[in-house]
Amino acid sequence: MSLVSLKGLSVQYGGNTVLSDVNLNIEAGEILTIVGPNGSGKSTLLRSIIGALKPSRGSITRAPGLRIGYVPQKLHIDPTLPLTVRRFLSLPTRVSDAQAEAALTQAGADRLATRQMSGLSGGQFQRVLLARALLTNPQLLILDEATQGLDQPGSAAFYQQIATVRAELGCAVLMVSHELHVVMAASDRVICLNGHICCEGEPEHVASAPEYRALFGTGTQGALALYRHEHNHSHDHSHDHGPGCDHDHGPSDANRGVADMDKVS
């Protein structure tokens, strides 16, 4: 059974269709990357999967008891609030020292427990958010542009940590990112989204798809070969093309309340 199954999913905001007829299965253990331009519905798709948004049409089926870890695009913390990393991990539900230590170690942040949240660098902050997501020992880890604002070395290190987490926990990873070169090279499967699924399949197939090239140009294919690495497992996925992606699907959803779900003050 798939971890998550979407059938005919459509989502509307104020009469504007942001997602239309999305069909998608997320399988155990895979790394699935969603790419697409601003306003293409990427964050809306993730928020629908975690249950923060209700679809206008279609259905979302989750495996019974599915544990989901979520790393948001943004999280606002009052910089005047004295809050250590260890205390942050116990909000809103208290966790044991052993749980916190294990999660920080898995996230590559084991030396940060006593640090103030307000004093962390961008990369350290994101690793702490990753540790928070790992507290539930997730079967599905979801990341919404989690490296936004990090420099290239910081992003590469973060994605390497994600690959390590997947290997250790055996969890599936669903992530959204604009960093096409590195992220696609680290993925088992890629979905190109522009209000609907334009094309999907293994990274090499998607990078050569006309729909993908129409959105992102041809330069990413060579970079994909440069950054590509071999996984020690394989997934058999077909490569499907949807309708063309040459139209606008409405206003950007990137800032529609994602941060509000994760505000700490």
Describe the structure in your own words.
Residues 4-219 form the ABC transporter domain. The protein has nine helices and ten strands. The chain has helices spanning 42-49, 85-88, 97-106, 122-134, 152-169, 180-185, 203-207, 210-216, 219-227; strands at 4-13, 16-26, 31-35, 57-62, 68-71, 140-144, 172-176, 189-193, 197-201, 240-241. The strands form two sheets. A seven-stranded mixed β-sheet has the order 5-6-7-3-8-9-10. A three-stranded antiparallel β-sheet has the order 2-1-4, covered by helices on one side. Strand 8 (189-193) and strand 9 (197-201) form a beta hairpin. Helix 3 (97-106) packs across helix 4. The radius of gyration is 18 Å and the shape is globular.
Global geometry: globular
Number of discrete domains: 1
Can you tell me the CATH class?
A: Alpha Beta
The ordered string of helix (H) and strand (E) elements is EEEHEEHHHEHEHEEHHHE
What's the CATH superfamily, by name? Answer: P-loop containing nucleotide triphosphate hydrolases
Give the structural class. Answer: alpha/beta
CATH topology: Rossmann fold
Cα(first) to Cα(last) distance is 40 Å
Runs with pLDDT <50, length 5+? Answer: 222-265
Keywords: ATP-binding, Cell membrane, Ion transport, Membrane, Nucleotide-binding, Translocase, Transport, Zinc, Zinc transport
Domain ABC transporter: 4-219
Region (Disordered): 231-265
Biased composition (Basic and acidic residues): 231-251
